[in-house]
Write a structure and sequence with these properties.
The structure is a single chain. The protein is built from 4 helices and 29 strands. The protein is of the alpha/beta class and 412 residues long. The strands form 6 sheets. Strands 1, 3, 4, 6, 7, 8, 10, 13, 16, 18, 20 and 22 form a 12-stranded parallel sheet that branches. Strands 5-2-21-19-17-14-11 form a 7-stranded parallel sheet, with no helix packed on it. Strands 9-12-15 form a 3-stranded parallel sheet, with no helix packed on it. It starts with 9 loop residues before the first helix and ends with a helix.
């Protein structure tokens, strides 16, 4: 058996004839200084295989009510029934109904389920984990697992922290429950359920649910992860389910012009009088350093966790409604025309009767006026011919009437 003691010098090791172990100790010590110690009970990510691209996967069909939005693939196998799409919408994915792709995903889901259920347990948890703040690890409930409020998963300083929850019976979250993350990648949270899972109304859930039987996601619940049911159906009701992109991604970070030079580590092994040299053991042990990098620096690949989608979109503040304009002044009607004064009818004329036959009072003096006229005595004059013509006509008429009367009498 080889024992190493850091408090012993190389000389003690040399005296014991164990110099070959000294180089191994030096290298191992340097490695521990660089990478640090690992946690013995740390959980490992559950491998989903082809099921990783699915936001929803069922064994006995998928039923949706309302305008659910699924980001990722949706599939079912062996049952092919998929109802409620539309009004449900599948973004960035495809619906696979009992095809070869869905069959393979179900096979990979079975493998993932078995892995999650076999993870070594870090700690047991109460039947209701509401109010708990948990570090990375594998947590097992005695039977059913419930969440009726908020549970916080804190990854600490490890960006690759993994959380696995094992529920031998059911997983049920109450209305408005929430899984909160602190420095945790949603791709590294897994819920293995021995029968069926129910994500309650308006729950904000994170992680991949691996259920043996069925999964019900109730009205208004959101899932940042996956709902994968092996044998039963998946029921949705106006949900948002987003399968996070868990594929490795890298970004480039400059090292710096010229780099950083790390000198080699040299551990001298002095010779000891009277001690023969050991074949294969050099007089010194040298750990090569890191040379500088001249010119344009290369880039190093740094894994980057996928972006965590927002829990929900906050609606914007509605705009101020338009103020109606001031109505214009109505037109003033014009002054009506003043009717004119009606015409005053003229005084009717006095009709002039026919000229009466002139008469002259007896004893009046008829004065002959020069030119043949006769003075009538009232200041006017008439011509003598005009004055006597009516009288002559009257006398003639009287004579005719008289003659007619005489003749009549004689005949009788």
């Amino acid at each position: 058996m080889i024992r190493t003691h850091l408090d012993r010098s190389p000389f003690d090791a040399a005296k014991r004839g164990r110099l070959p172990a000294l180089g191994t100790v030096a290298v191992a010590t340097a490695a521990l200084m660089i990478v640090g110690a690992s946690t013995a009970d740390a959980a490992t990510p559950v491998g989903l295989g082809t099921a990783a691209s699915y936001a929803v996967l069922a064994g006995a069909g998928v039923t949706n009510t309302g305008p659910s939005v699924i980001s990722g693939d949706l599939g079912t196998s062996p049952t092919a029934a998929v109802t409620g799409f539309p009004p449900g919408l599948v973004n960035n994915g495809t619906i696979h109904a009992a095809d070869a792709v869905a069959l393979q995903a179900q096979s990979d889901l079975t493998t993932a389920y078995d892995q999650a259920s076999a993870e070594p347990i870090s700690a047991n948890v109460a039947a209701d984990i509401t109010g708990s703040t948990l570090a990375p690890g594998v947590y097992k409930a005695s039977s059913a697992l419930a969440l009726n409020g908020t549970v916080t998963l804190d990854g600490g300083s490890d960006p690759d922290a993994v959380f696995v929850f094992q529920a031998p019976s059911t997983l049920i979250t109450g209305s408005g429950s929430r899984v909160a993350l602190i420095n945790v990648n949603p791709c590294n949270v897994f819920w293995q359920v021995g029968s069926s899972a129910t994500i309650g109304t308006s729950t904000t859930f994170v992680g991949t649910v691996l259920a043996l039987t069925s999964i019900s996601v109730q009205n208004g619940a959101t899932v940042s992860g996956r709902v994968l049911a092996r044998n039963g159906a998946v029921t949705l009701d106006d949900n948002v389910i987003t399968a996070n992109d868990c594929s490795p991604r890298t970004t480039t970070t400059p090292v710096g012009d010229g780099g950083v030079v790390v000198p080699p580590i040299v551990i001298p092994i002095p010779s000891i009088p009277g001690l023969p040299s050991i074949p294969g053991v050099p007089p010194v042990i040298t750990i090569p350093g890191l040379p500088g990098l001249p010119g344009t620096p290369p880039t190093s690949s740094v894994p980057t966790a996928p972006a965590v989608p927002p829990t929900s979109d906050t609606p914007g503040t509605p705009g101020t409604p338009n103020t109606p304009g001031t109505p214009g002044t109505p037109n003033t009607p014009g002054t009506p025309n003043t009717p004119g004064t009606p015409n005053t009818p003229g005084t009717p004329g006095v009709p002039t009767g026919p000229d009466a036959p002139g008469r002259y009072s007896p004893g009046s003096q008829i004065t002959q006026v020069p030119g043949g006229g006769v003075d009538t005595g009232d200041g006017s004059t008439v011509r003598s011919a005009d004055h006597w013509r009516p009288a002559s006509i009257g006398l003639a008429a009287a004579a005719i009437i008289g003659s007619a009367l005489v003749l009549r009498r004689r005949k009788s």
